[in-house]
Design goal:
The protein is α+β, with helices and mostly antiparallel strands and 697 residues long. It contains 26 helices and 15 strands.
Length: 697
Amino acid sequence: MSKRFRFVIILVLLGVAAFFLYPTFKWYVQLDETKRELSSSSNAQVKVYAQNRAREAIDELRELLLKPYTVSNLKNPEMLLTKLKKGEEPLYAFLKEKLSDQGRALVSGYEAEKKVTEGMKEDFVSELNRIIRDGLFYDEEAFEDFELTKRVRDKAEEYASSEKEYPDGYFIIINRSIFEEVFQREIVDIPLPKEYGFLKKNIDLYYKSIKKSGPPVATVTSAFKCFLRRADMMTAIEDHYHNEITALKETRRGTVQLGLDLMGGMKITIRANFEEMAKDRGEPISTEQREDAMKRVLEILNNRIDQFGVTEPQIRRQGEERIIIELPGVADPERIRGVIRGKGRLNFHIVDKEATDKLREYIEKSGGNFRLDTESLRAQGIIPAGTVAREVVKKDKYGNDETEGYAVIQEAIGLSGNYIEDAQVQRDPTMLRPIVTFNLSSEGGERFYKLTSDNEKETLAILLDDKIKFQATIEEPIRDRVQVRGQGITVEEAQDLALVLRTGALPVPLEIIAQEAVGASLGEDSINQGLNAILLGVILVIGFMLVYYKGGGIVADVALCLNFFLMAAALSVLNFTLTLPSIAGFILTIGMSVDANVIIFERIKEEYKIGKSRKAAVSTGFSKAFLTIVDANITTFIAAVVLAYFGKGPIQGFAWVLAIGIVCSMITALFVARLMFDFITDVFKAKRLSLGWRVSK
């Protein structure tokens, strides 16, 4: 292999490593603690954060919008008061109508006194600012730019020319020309703050749509002109913050994370109660049923705990009936316990169409004051006895359940979700639409066949924890293999339904038998001690190699640094969770990474001492050391892989760090160090070796 080819390979390897290591660097160096915490938020917390930030942004931008129009001083208040008193010109007549009782008293007081006192001037400035902040300088041209329908324009003009309070749903742009005429002062737009620069794309799209050139610098006024309604601006800003946190979550997935012992959190041991499961079924539980139940429990727990946004939760099986859950960073143990032990009720019910239509009419007449109360609805005769009203929910863009309506279902459970054995998304071969197929146990199939036979052409509702997740029409009696299809069902909706069917209900009751908490201060101390140990080890090894091998020590130290660089990149791409044993693996790798260099250097020294040239000694030394290094590292690598395969938790982390470190140390010793020696020989034309005090030639 030529030197140039080796150099290219190393450059490519370092480039790939830098690419994969960048997310970890960005996560721990460039991002502050607040943003890292946001990335661990649940979907519900992300939604609240994004909406609150959007409201704060609109309020802040509105303040900036009105700031240039705020009146702090009047050059000629006498002239303005006189024109307001007369009210002959349309503009001043309009302003006069908007004056409050205090404002009218000021005008009358000026007419009586024929002068403006400082107190009157301050009160008049406050009155004018109130009118401005209410947005009563209506800019008709701004609305024309949006090509609004006549109804919306007429509504806007109605509010702008009357004393009615303008609805919060729409923006009114202040008319600059009117303001400058009244207050005899030029308005200068405030540039859009840097933190809201993401609105620039909305500004560009707006001016492109009206075929006009936008301002050279984005301004607050131009940002408001992009949106007719407050809701539109709210959505644009909210989506930005939502996408920002989503991007943070994606960044986090490609980084080295801290484990429970470093970050703090909770460790929970739970047990599957197969005795109670057998009692509920009325029959013994077979080994196959136990295995299947444990697999489903692991899948369900992963799905449930994901809602907390926990950083890399570790959920693993221990023995035949125990599960260990490690949740770094969790600070609400009661909430976690409730989610783990929750039954996740999944049931099938028949929908009462007539009662549902009656309920919808009642909700429309209630004018938005409806509150779901089954007992009250029964008492009023809205729904019949034997039925209950339930929410119909759909996932919003954050992944949270969002109420989109209500339906009335039969109170009796048609089929329990415990009879579902599997659920998959498939493709309809005829219409090419996604369908959801799930299999029932033999007993469940018989129950479902009776249910569908008695309710053919009726609507079947699938409920999870008393919320309707999906509805479908029963086309024909069905036994053990069920297909759910809909006219407008998307692939994502089909996958969500399959997940609900597969993981909705726990197949076996769970009980918590142990719960431990790890404090954050312990994690911080552990991190500092581990980092100090790594740093001290690196300094001692680097110092020893420099003192003992002189110039060769520099080569070994560069290889050591590159070894750590490659290790960190490999752990990042594997989304590795760093624990205390993993740090121990790093420290052990420090010594092992220079071990290969020591073997190579000693072989080179032997060849050099018998009279070979520098180039020949280096070539022969690497050749003779190659097999020794490979043999030694392969045996250690095999031991590390076996330990990683059979070990669990922290032991497994230690083994993987050791295995990765061995591979990286071989690359840096056999390729990087060799390339550096060749570079010194061929480029710098060095004729002597610097490999220690005993090399005199």
